[in-house]
Amino acid sequence: MITNLSQRLRLVASALTCATTILLSLPAQADMTTYRYGNGVTATGVLPLDLDFYETEPACPAPRPTVLLIHGGGFRDGSRKDAPLIQLAEFLNANGYNAASMDYRLMRDTPRPTLTVAPDFQGRDAQLTAASAAFEDTAMAMRWLADNAQILCVDPTQIILWGESAGAIAALYAAYALDTTATQRPTPIAVVSFWGGFLPHDNLKRGDPSLFLLHGSADVTVPVDQSVSLAKAAHSRGIPVHIHQVIDAGHGFAAIDPFELTLNETPLMDHILRFLQAAQTGQVFKSRATEGQNPK
Predict the structure, then answer these.
(1) Could you tell me which of 284, 234, 238, 243 has the C-alpha nearest to residue 263?
(2) CA distances, 238 to each of 45, 234, 254 (Å)
(3) 39 burial via Cβ count (<10 Å: 0-12, 13-18, 19+)
(4) Contacts of 154 by beta carbon, 8 Å cutoff, 6+ apart
(5) Where are the domains of the chain?
(6) Class of domain 6-293
(7) pLDDT for the residue numbered 4
(8) Which value, to the nearest 10 degrees, does the dihedral of the CA atoms of residues 37, 159, 201, 246 take?
(9) What mean pLDDT do residues 17-25 have?
(10) How far is the C-alpha of 59 from the C-alpha of 85, rounded, in Å?
(11) Considering the entire predicted model, what is its pTM?
């Protein structure tokens, strides 16, 4: 269910706009293919929408779990080719996952989505309209992956959403908040949210996808309380959830390098892999809240 949260979402989106993303060093380009996953309606016509698909290997002995990566940027900017997303895609490929990094309609595209997040602001607040378009485009990319599963060696029952900042908000809405809308998409098995966390709690229900939240405790762009309260709400509904706070860290990859974090002397990314593997196999993942220092 989508509730009328125009004011709250506007504040979050506005804060995201003010955040400056500093990219990690660009890793070696992984093998990937660019595909057109759909078209988005804008005020001036139709905008082609692309994603970059990273496959683990050309051979396909069995359909593989697939992670859809969604960039941040306050619904104003950002790209599927942002360096941290390429690094994540390579990491996922090395661990047996396909990865797809998607673009979506932004404010500058003057999108005209059919989905509405806040009906009383729809068409009058450009950033909220762009957020609605991002949620709609995320669902479209999920459908495209499922429709092309045989060609791409994708297991359509094992799709995972992984977003950062505004992209995390898009992942959360696409996973949990579209059930009562006409927007169709395959059900993901898990969501990973990096410094996002904004979602009305009444969209959560027992049986929803597992949730992993990473957030800096000193984030002034999207306050960590957004993720903390979301984790509590998910846990209260029986949804497996892991929230990890990075002490004194701010917002974005400039403030947090997930590949440098450890938890009990184990890389945090290994914990995320275990979380995803539990979601894939249907194992009971014990909800937990952890915190650690930022090595930066």
Answers:
(1) 243
(2) 44, 6, 33
(3) middle
(4) 63, 64, 66, 98, 145, 146, 148
(5) 6-293
(6) alpha beta
(7) 47
(8) -100
(9) 39
(10) 24
(11) 0.90
